[in-house]
Specification:
single chain, Aminopeptidase, 2 domains, 2 strands, Spermidine/spermine N1-acetyltransferase family member 2b, acyltransferase, Acyl_CoA_acyltransferase, transferase
Length: 138
Amino acid sequence: MNFKIRAAKKDDCKDISRMIMELATYGKMPDEVKISHKELERDGFSSNPFFQCLVAEVPEENKSKEGQGIGKSLMSKVAQLGKEKQCMRLQFAVLDWNTPSLDFYVAKGAQDVTASEGWHFLRFDGEALDKLANEAED
């Protein structure tokens, strides 16, 4: 294993932002990215953070290589940290056309609840989020 998994630091936010954009581009949705590295810094590294993040430290000569187990190691570490905090499930979304990832997760034991339980992931954003928030009573 030629990499190290560690908790992200504020200084990592530019790289995290870049990787979010790379994932969105891979997912054919680069216009959907609505967060900047400054917002990541604010939201993840304040006195009351909204999220935690892990990063893999990978030597430069290995950064473009696949099949090193980095993704599996990151997922395993997230699962370990979740279990330590009494989490009962790890839930995430995968695009329906991304069969290599779907196959990987299912092989690891993930359940595709879209088919088995009929769940749909829904989102409020933009004007719809504004409208819903404006309906709240003070």
